Amino acid sequence: MTAALELCAVRKQFGATEIIRGIDLSIPKGERHALIGPNGAGKSTTFNLISGRSTPSSGSVKLNGVEIGGLPPYAVNRLGLSRSFQITNIFHRLSVFENLRCAVLWSLGYRYSFWHRLAALRDARERADAVLERIGLQRVRDTQAGLLTYAEQRALEIGITIASGADVILLDEPTAGMSRSETDHAVELIRTVTEGKTLVMVEHDMGVVFDLADRISVLVYGEIIATGTPDAIRNDSTVQEAYLGTTLDTDQAGGAH
């Protein structure tokens, strides 16, 4: 079966500095996969290489068997991959509903169609309202997005990420800055909205990682040093030493960001 996402010998240099040093990774369709590692390990750079924000210096990046390395972000998105960012990326002056409606337009065929009145697009309205319900923000449907709480803005961004119907979702630190109760809610939201999709996430909260991920890859100094199930990673002495310098304790690491 063709992998949802496959990286083969991927390298990335900035000048003489090599940040990503030959990553090989295959993620099957429908898997929830976490990418963890210490600060500066290259996690965000890897996400940028996958999503088109950066071009690999060498190697191959494939989405559902199609080479995407070097394609611009919009082209990668149209092939079925969507991502969120560490810093919340929404239209602050638009309402929650309007943010979601913007996100569904391309997938519904309203591309460079300037003659359509947005208010008359019933399918876009229905799709946006359906996503709104899935992320639990119906009560703030008409609220300006910039006035939402931080946790609500992160939920909205997750909604925007899934609104296009992409089957591969990249979430970059989706629970960063949240309280424990907000994190618990976000985990259930992510679990629900990514059901049946392929999820790849960068996350520092080990409680979230061990709760959500089917498999985990550990990135250190631009190289993947281990890939395995949560139990295998938790008990890997090499990972413990390289990542935390101690035992991977989900309770101890759960609040670390």
TrEMBL record:
Q: What GO terms are given for molecular function?
A: ATP binding; ATP hydrolysis activity
Q: Name one GO cellular component term.
A: plasma membrane
UniProt entry keywords in alphabetical sequence: ATP-binding, Cell inner membrane, Cell membrane, Membrane, Nucleotide-binding, Transport
Under the heading Gene3D superfamilies, the entry gives:
P-loop containing nucleotide triphosphate hydrolases (3.40.50.300)
**A Pfam family matched by this chain, by name?**
BCA_ABC_TP_C
Domain ABC transporter, residue spans: 5-246
Q: Which SUPFAM superfamilies does the record associate with it?
A: P-loop containing nucleoside triphosphate hydrolases (SSF52540)
Q: What is this protein called?
A: ABC transporter ATP-binding protein
* Species, as recorded: Pararobbsia silviterrae
Query: Lineage, please?
Result: Bacteria, Pseudomonadati, Pseudomonadota, Betaproteobacteria, Burkholderiales
